[in-house]
Structures are given as structure tokens and as C-alpha cells.
Amino acid sequence: MEKYPEDLRTPPVPLIAVVGCTELHSSISGHLHSQKPPINTLALPDFSKISVIGKAPKPGGPDTPPVGILRRDWLLKHRTKIPAVVAALIPSEQVSGDPAQWLGLCTLLDQLKAVIRTRNIKLVIVVVQSSSEDNMNDDRMIALRKRVEVDSKYIVNFSVRDSSEVKQSLNRHDSQPTCSSCPCLLGAVFSELVNIYYREEGRRVKTRIEKRTFSYAELAVRYCFKTSALEELFLVPALKFAGMVAVYAEFRRDWVEALKFYEDAYHALREMVGTSTRLPAIQRLVEIKTLAEQLHFKISTLLLHGGKIIEAVLWFRQHCAAYKRLIGAAEVTFLHWEWISRQFLVFTELLETSSKNIPGFSSIVLDVTDKALTEWELQPAYYYQLASHYLKEKRSCLELAISMSELFSQGENAGESVVASGYVGQFARLLEQSPDEAILQPLTDEDFVRYAIAEGKRFQDSFEIIALLKKSYEIYTGLKALRMASDCGFQMAKEYFSLGEIKNAKQYFNYAVSLYRCEGWTTLLWEILGYLRECSRQDGSLKEFVEYSLEMAALPVSSGDSVAFKQCGPAGPPSFQKREIIHKEVVGLVTGESDLPSSDVPKNLRITGESPLHLEIDLVSPLRVVLLASVAFHEQAVKPDMPAQITLSLLSHLPAPFEIDELEVQFNQSECNFTIQNSHRTPSAVNSTSEDSHRVESAPALALFTDKWLRLTYDVKSCRAESPASMEDPPLWKFEEHVESLPTKDPALSFSGQKAIQVEEPDPQVDLSVDAMGPALVGEIFVVPVTITSKGHSLHSGELKINLVDPKGAGLASPREIEPYATGSHHVELLGISGLDEERAVEGSDTIRKIQHSFGLMSIPFLNDWESWSCQLEIKWHRPKPVMIFVSVSYSPQSDDSSAVKVHVHRSVQIEGKSPVFISHQVLLPFRHDSLLLSRVKPIAEAEKLPSLPLNETSILVVSAKNCTEVPLRILSMTIEGDDNALGSSCTVRSASNQHMDTAGPNLLVPGEEHKKAFSIIPITKTSKVRMGTVCLTWMRDSEYLSPADSDVSGVLTKHRLPDANVELSPVIVSLECPPHAVLGEPFTYFIKIQNQTELLQEIKYSLVDSHGFVSSGSHIDTVSVLPKSEHVLSYKLVPLASGPQHLPKVTVTAARFSASFQSSVTASTIFVFPAEPQF
User: Fold this and answer.
1) pLDDT at 559
2) Which of 70, 231, 809, 1039 matches a 20 to 30 Å C-alpha distance to 155?
3) How far does the chain reach from its first CA to its final CA, in angstroms?
């Protein structure tokens, strides 16, 4: 695309000419260039230079046949020489001056009009005012308009008094009333006249096309080209030109019409093929293809930049199909393939610039349902690859043309005087060149062929082919299209190989060969391995040469796979005979028995004792296709020092048999290694080894035949074998026509044989016991005894491992905010190991003792046979959770050597962790002493309901602890601790009893039994809330309790935080007072005390309901007023009428202000009546 002329590669921009007042040219040009769309300017210093834009007379008459289709400089001429508008800059003094100045101005304007009429160029008169004293004469302005015959709006006043007015005049000017009635933009005047000019020119040419006023097809193409160019204007910078009718359309930005006329010109040009004899046949076809290339370029550009990606691709396909068969004469076939390659290259560059506008591939393919469009046709890599392909065709045809040309030696300087003629696609011989005119002579086809061949020899196409392939390779690699990328890399490598750049060639050969090996492309592998083999030969790499040769000799190819020799590279066509030749060559090179004389073998490809050859075949080596090894143990496991059978199988795909002198089998334990020697052959000097402790086996024959397994079976003791090769099939030799065999005689062993064998540990002769008496209780230190007893083995380097694991796999960690009472971040914690035998403590620096939250490790002292050692695991539960305890003992029964075989013993036990007690509480008011709490009167949501305590009044707190386990517990103490903060010190809590423990000892709490204790609580600070404290319960298992006399009894502390309580000032307190018991028939006084603790007068209503067990005296119903901070007492005389528990008269007290009533409970209203005075 860069080889196109600049006027074709850059967008069409209108041109205007500015005449006179040279000092204003730079400012006007800069302003017009900054407009959108921009406008170019042609600056003429004075009116004497106006003739340069005049139209010269054409030679010949109207019936003269055209010399060519499109002049080469036509686009450049309309961009730089032929303006659409002429702006005449006239000083104001010439317009309003004396008659002589006016007559001189009229003469200049008449000359200007005569010149521009020949081309229909539009005219703008700009009157330049340089001072404020310039007053324009209205009569002169009217005369000026009539003289130039233009509309008044095209006569513009331009003020240049200062720089600000110049800038204002460029952007906006106020026309005189005689010139225009409204203000307008200066750029808009030029843009309007530019559009008028190109529209009229296009219309004029279209009229000639429609009326067919010409006799030659060349003119039809030319006129369509012109009209389209005027319709297109100010497209993106990537736009290219290609037409005359269409060019006029481009200037006016009429994309639809421009595209239409470009297509018309394209089709008219295609119809000219074979119908015109104006030029010799070869040159005529070259001219048509050159112009078709430009027309196609314009059409593709308009389609792509219009977002019509599908239409552009389909148009390109149609373009290639229309001209692909127009090869032309045989001697210039290379020009055709070069032209085809250039079409693909230019289109992919256009497609690449518009790739950001391409939608998804799937949606594009779905849109084109009636035409076959593949997703590769939307990728630039596809076109880069085809461009390189056709360029290689051009190179081949050029080489053939050079070799067959008889005139080549005579035309050595044939291209020196050949130049491009005045028409697109034509060439001529330059005879004489002068400053004014060049004399050209038409070429014959023979001259043109010599010129084309001479030009073709100047360029080396390999570098351009590599550049195209590299772009395609990079794009395919980015798209993960590995096969296409490998093909491009392969083609690049062949180009580098032909240029002698071996290093670059090997780089891309190796990339492609890796994919062909994985996917098993046999024919492609043969060709690429042939190139790599030749590269290693030229590079002097012996190891690579042998590896590539062996791989080629083992490829599954036959004579039926042969293709054309030129497509098979240096190795030639693949065949079984060729495989044998390569095999024989590489074996002779390795053994030194080559048929070639030693002088013909390069020095760097000779094997000597000083530089032996070592080849390694591992799991990923490509040489697995040459030699395949299989190792199979007959058993899955074996005891120590017991023999285990192993079968070693070897398979060769080489075309000829060969023998092995010595075979060494190695294991991961060196003492198991052994060597197999061929008894029929003496080991060579290179393969001989010094005497060592490895055993040597002898085999009657170690010969490998093509596609036949060599099976060797031997015994191995105490080793864990690992196969040096895998039995996974390589991608080659899977679907070839050969007899399939198994590596072992036993078919089951071939599929189930082990590549490794496990040597089991000796049976342990140590007893490990873990005794746990569950369940474990939260908070206590739970002890798990562990005992190790030797029953036949001595314990050397023993280790004890402890692991605490959640049986459900949920983990043992606990967030602190979830478990505030936990001492750590774990639910269960291993605290330590106690109860160790100090006499058997492990001595020395090898002692190990490591304790973590859920893991423990410690050393075990040496134990002789039938000795034992024990310890205790101390574990603490922070929350109820089941735990699996894994205990493992590892030891060496022989010695303390760290490399000695270890024996392991494992035990596990699951322990359930439980909460020991369930603690609850209850808040009560004192007996027969009730306080009015307003929070109990108002309805409150259940979630927000808290206990309420009366301020400065005693309340009873009853704490209960229930045994939730299956084991008896001893309660040592129960106390309540207050908080240290101000909220916690706002109340006092005391035990209802002065003793913390009964004299009989700690209370026994059997499973399911409750232990209760009462506390008094008095809020002493007027706050909204108060913290009652934390219950501290000290307990222990009953099995651990010895006697009450034991003063060292220590228990487990369990804490339970009591909830917060609301504190209220009771406005009214009601108390009932009566003797603790009564005697039948003896009267006693029953008091009801009402206390007002507020600052207000309280109205109290009370009532008394008689009971059948008493005779009462006093007011039964009334209303009283209780003064602030005072107490009112109601007294009644009661005489018991019956003995036993009797209900006192029921009392109801109502506080009218709070609408709250008090009724005594059944318990508070009950008194025991004795028949006679009791004697205590």
C-alpha cells in the first residue's frame, strides 16, 4: 500500500486560489487548513500569474482515439493546480479610488473572468480594508458586483486594521447592505462554492456518460472515475483514490454515488479485456490490471470505512475471481502472480486498519446465509499468508522466465531508459528530456518483457516473503491457531534455509516440528526432519544429526506416502528404502563402519574416544518413536529381602535389526542395579566399565528386530523400582498397518503390570495403647494415658506424634468473638505431655519436644525387648466438640541411623467434649415486699425484655447449675464476681449465706440434678442499666474428690456472664406485715404499708376481700392520698376461725396516676394457724 502514489493514498481536499494581497495569504491559508473539513490554498502573488490555472488546448479533434484510460497526474493536478474557487483580494482604495484605479481594476477582473470561465471555476471578491477611513462607495460596490457577475454574498469585506480584526474577519464578517443582508462565515463561503463547483463538474461528466457522447470505452471508464472522485470529500486519512467520475463524488462526500461510479468504472474496465487493440497485448493487460487495482482499492476502502466488512470481503473475493485467470503471456506470468500477491497484501492492510470495527466472528457468519464465508476470511493473517504464497509463485515463474529468455543476455541494460508514461499502467522509452518536454517512444511487448525481467532481478523476494509470513505467524499465534501458525513458521524456516540463515531456520523448524510430533503428521514430519537433519549437518551438530536421522528412520512411512520431490525437502520423498538408507548411514557413522570414505565425512560429525556420543530417551523425548521401553513388576508389593520379578521389554521401530552390547538397569536404590550383557558379543572398549558391586546377568542375545518386543525377566530384591520410560503410546505408530504385540507374554500383565513396586514395612512388634475415659468436660484438663510396650523389637530413634483432628473435618479453630470464654483461638488445645519417666528421659542433642495447639511431637527413649514407657497427654476443651486423637509411634528396630527403615504404629480414639453444667438464673422481689416497676406495666417486645430491679431496694437472685453430663460432679463453690468498670460497680451482690461450702464438704451433684444458691442484689446508682456480674462455679469430678479434710482440693472454674438488668426508681412500694403464724381464736394485726417515693401526691385506691378463715375489722374499700416521700399504713384486726394453712384476706392496691394495681400472691397471703399456742 505504501507503493501507491501519495495522491492515491491521501484523502481528496478541495483547492482554492488566492490572488493579490500576499501579506494575507499565510493567515488565510492557516485558517482554512484548520477548518473541518480542511481546504488547501494556491497562493498567486498578483493577477499576472492567473494564467497558470487556465485550460490549455488539447491536441487532436473530438474523434481522436485516447492514448490511455486515465492520466497519471490527473488526481495530483486537481489537488495542487486546478482550484474550485478563486478568491480575488482587492484593496479597498482600488474600489473607491479615482477612475484610473477603477478602470485598472476592471481590466484585471476581466482577465480573471476570461481565465476561470474555461474551467467553470467559481469566484469570490474579498475587499480588504486597511484603515478606518476606508469608506466604501455604495455605487462602486454595486458596479463591482455587476462587473464580476456574482451574487452579493460572494463579495466579502475583510478588515485588517489590527490582528484582532483580522482574526474576526477570518471567522465572521459583516457585509455591506449592498453585498449581503446577513453575516456569514468566511469558511462557509468557500465551502459552499467548492460544493457547487464539484457538483456541477460531476453533473457535466455524468451527462456525457448518460448521453454516450463518446466512441471509446476508455472514455467511459475515465468519466466514471472523475464523477466518483467529486462525490467523496474529507474521508479518513487512509482513504485512497481510484476513479474520475467517482473522484468528483468523493470531493462532495457523496459516498453512495462515489461507490456506484467506482463500481461502474470497474465493470466497464473488465469488459475492455480482449476487446481493444490500442496497445500490444501484454502492455494492454498490464494497464487494465493496474487501473483495476486502483478501482478495487477505492471500493474496498469505502466499504470498510463504512463498516461494511462482509461486503468488502465478498467484493475482494469477486475481484480475485475476475482477474485470477487473466495470466497473460507465458513469459510475463510472474507479473500476474506479483499482482495477485499485491491484491492480498493491500486488502489485508486495509482490513487490519479497520479490525477494531469488526464484530464477533459468529455474528458475522450468521449474517451471511446465502454465501460461504469462513471466519478466516475476516482475519488479516489469512491474507498475509496467501500474499506470501502468490509471491513465491511469482518468484518461481520469474526464475523460469530468466532461464528460458534468449534475449536476457542482450538486454542487460534494457530497463535503464524505460519510465512510466503519462497514463496509469503504461510505460515508454525515454529518448530525450528537456525542461519543457520529454520525448517518449512506445515500447514493444518484447522490450517490455526485457524491462520487466530486469526489474524483477533487482529485488530478492525471500525477505518480503519472510516478512509476510512473520506477520501471519504472529497473528495466528495470538489467536491460538497453532496449526496455521506452525505452517507459517515452517514456510518461514524454508525461506531462511534457502538464504543460508541456519540459526533462524532451526528456530522455526523446531516450533513446527513439536506440533507435528504431537499430532502425528507423518509426511510433514518427514519433510521437516529432513530440513533439520540438513541444518545440523551444516551446523556441525553431531548429536542433533544422529537424533534426527534415527527419528526419520523410525517414521511409519511407506512408498505410498510419496509426494512430489520438490515438496519433500532435502530428504526426498518418504519411502521404506529411504528409511533403510538413513538407518544404515547413521549406524555406520556411530560404529565407524560407514561406506563413505573418511575424507567425505565432516570432521565435526565423527565419533571418537575423546568425544563419545550420548543419547537420552526420556518421557518427552522424540526418540521414543525409535526405541520404546516397558518395565513391569509382577507384584504390587513385596516384603523386605524378598525377591520380586521384573520384566523389561524393548521395542524398535527402526527398519533394520540391530544388537545391543550391554544393557544396564538402574533403580532409585543403587544396590538394586544390575547389568545385562550380550553373551554373543564382547563389550566394546567404549562401553567397558570398572569392576563394582553390581550384579551382572548374561543374556543369550540382545538383538532388536523391527516391531518385535524383546522381553527379559529377572529377580530383584528389596527395591522400589521406577520405570525410566512410560508405556503411554506415542502419537506415531498408532494407526499404521502392522501386527500389534504386547510388551509381555501375559496380556493381563501388560495392562496391570506395575511401573513401581512397594516394599512394605516389617510387621511392628510394639504395642501402643491409648486409654481415654470419656467424656471430656469443657474447662478441665483431660488426661489421656499413652503406653508403649516392646514385644520383640528394640526401639531406636523413637518418636511419638499426636494429632487432634475434627472428625467432621470442620477444623478446631474458634473465633474469639464467637467464643469469648475460650483462652485461645482453638476449640480444643493440646497443653502438654506429663507423667514422663525421668529415669528414661532421652539424653543428647537429638531430643525432640514440640507442642502446638493440635499437634505434638516428642522423642521416645531407647527401649529393650519387653520394656515399656508411658506418658499422659494433657488436653483442654474450650467448647463442646468431638475430637479424634491420632497417636503414632515410629521407630527403627535395628539402629539409630537416620537412614534406617522406620516402622510405624498407629492408634486413634474419639473423645466427646461436653459442657459440664448448665447455668441459669432468676430475679425475685423480697417476700411480701413489692415495688411498682413501670417497665412491667408497659408492653415491651420479647427480644428487648430485660430483668428490672428497683433502685436502692433488695432483690433476690437465684442461680441454678444443672449437671449435664453422665458423671457425678462436686460443687466446690459458687460466687458472683462484679465487673471492674463503672457499670459493673453500680450494684452490690452478696450471698444469702455467709458460708461458701457446707461443713459436710462440697455438694454432690448427680447427673440431671440442680444446685441452687440465692444472692441479694441492691442497685445503688441511678443508671438505666446495671451489670449483675459473672457467675463463677468451681467444680470437680466426684471420682477425683478424696475427703473434706483435704485442703489442697482444686477444681475447675466455669464462668457464666449474667445479662444486664434495667434499674428503675419504684414510685410506690407495698409491704404486707403479719406474724409468722397465728393461734386459733387469738386476734392479731395485719398491716398494709404504702410508701410514696415520688415528689408528687399519689392517689391510692385499696380494697380488702374477706376470707372464710378469718373475721376481720377495718375499712374494706376506700381511697387515700399519700403525701410525697411518706408512708401510709392500713391496719386490720384478724381472728382465725380455722386451723392449718389459711388464706389471708385478699388485698388490692391501685395507683391511679400510673393505672397500676397490686394484688398479693397466694404464697404471700398464706399463714399457718395453730390450734393452740405452739411450744418451740
Assistant:
1) 60
2) 231
3) 129
